[in-house]
């Protein structure tokens, strides 16, 4: 699932993004429990979670905001067990690839609004910190507020994801 598709569809969470992967169904949403609170998916009759981040173990305890996600890799079937049986299942795996710093100044600021007082402000800023462009800094941040049709329902989310790259 590429960054262009995520941008075109205005995807704000990983749960929305994986709807683009055929054959992957959401079993239940994130619960917020420590250790196993992330969303569970069904692929080819097996349960799996998006427990990989850049190919490394990354446990999930809540809904994942897509602010710092570059792309999502979904491998279906038993070939996913080649990446480690503790993190995958015979149904496949989900790997979140995060955004990486690059050697030019740039960025993006966005604002989205919608029903039930939905408001989202996101900013990506990338800048080299020295003239040789060997030290590069990327700051990725987002604030999300969503009301609800229920009297006391709402959802607030914050993301702050800095990244520093040093070329030796």
Strand order of the largest sheet: 5-4-7-6
Please identify the structural class as seen in this structure: mainly beta
| Series of secondary-structure elements, N-terminal to C-terminal | HHEEEEEEEEEEE
Mean pLDDT across all amino acids: 86
Low-confidence stretches: none
- From the alpha carbons, calculate the radius of gyration and give it in angstroms: 17 Å
Number-wise, the strands total 11
Shape: globular
Please count the helical segments: 2
Helix content: under 10%
What fraction of the residues are assigned to beta strands by DSSP?
A: 35-45%
Distance between the termini: 32 Å
The description of the largest β-sheet is: 4 strands, mixed
Outline the structure in words.
- The structure is a single chain.
- Helices cover 6% and strands 45% of the residues.
- The chain is mainly beta and 168 residues long.
- The protein has a four-stranded mixed β-sheet, with no helix packed on it. The protein has a four-stranded antiparallel β-sheet with strand order 8-9-10-11, with no helix packed on it. Strands 1-2-3 form a three-stranded antiparallel β-sheet, with no helix packed on it.
- Strand 4 (52-53) and strand 5 form a beta hairpin.
- The two termini are 32 Å apart.
